Amino acid sequence: MRTRIALIQMRSGGDPARNLDDAEAMIREAAANGARLVLTPEVTNLVEKDTKRLFELLKSPEEDPAPVRLSDIAEANRIDILAGSLALLGPDGRAVNRAMLFGPDGGLKARYDKIHMFDVKIGAGETWSESTNYRPGERAVVADAAGLKLGLSICYDVRFAYLYRALAKAGAEAIAVPSAFTRPTGRAHWEVLLRARAIETGSFILAPAQGGAHEDGRKTWGHSMVVGPWGEIIAALDHDQPGILYAEIDPAEARKARERIPALAGDREFEGP
What is the pTM of this model? Predict the structure, then answer.
């Protein structure tokens, strides 16, 4: 059975209320156009690289208005919504980068905290140290969403193939990769990594993205994409502007891909080098 999905591409800034307004408008439009599952990008509610200002704006999951509002939108439109991630204040005083899946009844179906922290030196003076402010997650998550078994991941996770293999072996037919890729890494690696994860696992890859020049000076790649389990690009945006990407996917295609190449069943023990 085919499922109509929508990926929301955003350009979030430092005003959480405005970001939520932007997200809600596009989610409601997607629902009106028949989407049963709508996915938003990484840090939907707040993009702010200045540490002082970030922590002035962060709220706990119980105090932040985003989870309640997204829950209400899901219930009002009778759809599943994956908040690709929200920047929230964790219990230890550090931030958490958290995906939250809301069902058509408004209930929280699942949550996932980003496991792999973006600590890199890209070059040309661009350095990122996500672990300075964010606490990494410790648990992989698969949940039911609009008739799909959906694996959860966030952005930099896509470089760690073992996570995607674990999600697929746990039953995921589609894997979400909400992201805020930098322009240099997006230009070089975005499509290649998404297609590789799809091929390796025989899964649909659903990758809503942040895009464009943000208020804090960050520049993200955009180019939201849906990749099929054979590695084919089903739908993609060719720009970094805010927008909605639609696709229809059938979980049976994931099963067919895994039957053709049963790599998930081919693990073998081996000695290290």
Answer: 0.97
